[in-house]
Amino acid sequence: MAAKVLIVTGDAAESLEVLYPYQRLLEEGYEVHVAAPTRKTLRFVVHDFEPGFDTYTEKPGYTWPADLAFADVDPGEYVAVVIPGGRAPEYLRNDPELRKILKSFFDADKPVAQICHGPLITAAVDSLRGRRVTAYPALELDMQAAGATYQDSEAVVDGTLVSSRAWPDHPTWMREFLKVLRAKAPAS
């Protein structure tokens, strides 16, 4: 039986930051479930970098079904969690069910992969204090306010926490996360 990994996300998540780890983890042999505030079809976005813009642009992305609602998640069934970025973390960090889920992963020292704006959620459960992380560069001050040491790097590994800046860093992020995941919880 394959070990299960949870992806926690919602509307306005960055398409690539949900679907790349989803497919990569399936390829690796893990069973992957997507959880959101409610079980519904989620609407993702595409963030891109265009000349002349001071920040990223946003366009409609893919739709994807959530397998279950946060309230239905039993964290004990999962060996790891992935927290994609996009705009979703801005409102997801306020969800008490999601905060309980993430706290349980950190309390059990299970692997956590976060990218882009995803660390806004782990900051909301006070799980960044004393850690080294990276995130979307505009979040450097947020990471410092959460008690973390920010590093501008493709991926930062701090114990079982693996963070990354944004989708252009996917190969390094997933390579580092899979090292941690395979060591803690092989696929089968």
Automatic annotation (TrEMBL):
UniProt-listed Pfam families: DJ-1_PfpI
Domain of life: Bacteria
Domain DJ-1/PfpI: 3-179
InterPro entries attached to this UniProt entry: C56_PfpI-like (IPR006286), Class_I_gatase-like (IPR029062), DJ-1/PfpI (IPR002818)
Family from the record: Belongs to the peptidase C56 family.
Protein name (Swiss-Prot/TrEMBL): DJ-1/PfpI family protein
Species this chain originates from: Streptomyces griseosporeus
